[in-house]
Amino acid sequence: MKNQRFVVAGVLIALALIAPLLVYPVFLMTALCFALFACAFNLLLGYAGLMSFGHAMFFGMGGYFFGYVVKAMGLPPEAGLVAGVGGAALLGLVTGALAIRRQGIYFAMITLAFAQMVFFICVQAPFTGGEDGLQGIPRRALLGGLIPITDDLALYYVVLAIFLFGFAAIFRFTHSPFGQVLKAIRDNEQRALSLGYEADRYKLLAFVLSAALSGLAGATKAMVLQFATLTDVSAAMSGEVVLMALVGGLGTNTGPVLGAFVIVAMQNYLASFGEFVLVIQGAIFVVIVMAFRKGLVGEIGDWLRARRKAS
What does the pLDDT look like over 239-256, one tens digit per residue? Predict the structure, then answer.
């Protein structure tokens, strides 16, 4: 079983390496950024059982921090990425420390309230560019000029490396004792407390890690598309990441990646339908919830396990 996983991972990485030769690189980079965002959200909801309605504030602020540091301060992209991750983590620490004091729908509504406040700040604050956002963020070379990223193909491999780093980090978290405690808290918090685990501390750590990785995804997206706008901090974006995780499969490692690619592909290739894309997304969401309650990857995994048992 373990060998099969290594083979599948090797095949997927090989496909990812040759993919920009077959598919438009900017589409792939955008999908990878949203895939990392969906994986970070899945760490919080799929493993810790915490439903956030405001996760776009970390994704969007990661982009704003990156854009301000690179464009206004003139610093290299590495500094922008660090600022995006650090700023989102700090925001996650402040909001998470208050939000985890409540559970269920109350936790979700608190995160939504914080996200609305962040959205208002982004509309009013001078460093975000208001309704125009930050446009024309320059693509400067990485590592002191060693890696020029003005070319889309070169930048794709940088984005792929960032995604694999984030994905590997989440995989390590969820397959460690820390991840097992998160699952225990998700399944039965009172039992976890009775076993001596400080549930609030674990939930806060999961919240901050998820926020930091969401900030990394947002900063990478700003580096790719060279802008950061209000759309990335809006409530609609928070809803989209929920949709990505549910379509792919909550609590699975690869489910949010597949879900992100499905949603981004629909937005990209069905753009000619205009606002009707939202109707199509809604219809797919209803079908997934009704027929694939564990998401695409979750249902496929159950089917494969049933076949192995039958044989």
Answer: 889 989 988 888 888 889
Contact call for residues 228 and 60 (beta carbons, < 8 A): yes
Tokens in use for 87? Answer: 């700023």
Measure the CA–CA gap between 154 and 87, rounded to whole angstroms: 27
Alpha helices in 175-254 (DSSP H): 177-187, 189-194, 199-225, 235-248
Amino acid identity at 142: L
Q: Which of 100, 87, 61, 27 minimizes the C-alpha distance to 238?
A: 61
Whether pTM > 0.85 for this model: the answer is yes
Helix, strand, coil distribution of the chain in percent, nearest 5: 80, 0, 20
**HSE (side-chain half, CA atoms, 13 Å) at 147:** 15
Parallel, antiparallel or unpaired: strands 134-135 and 227-228: antiparallel
Q: What is the DSSP letter of 147?
A: B
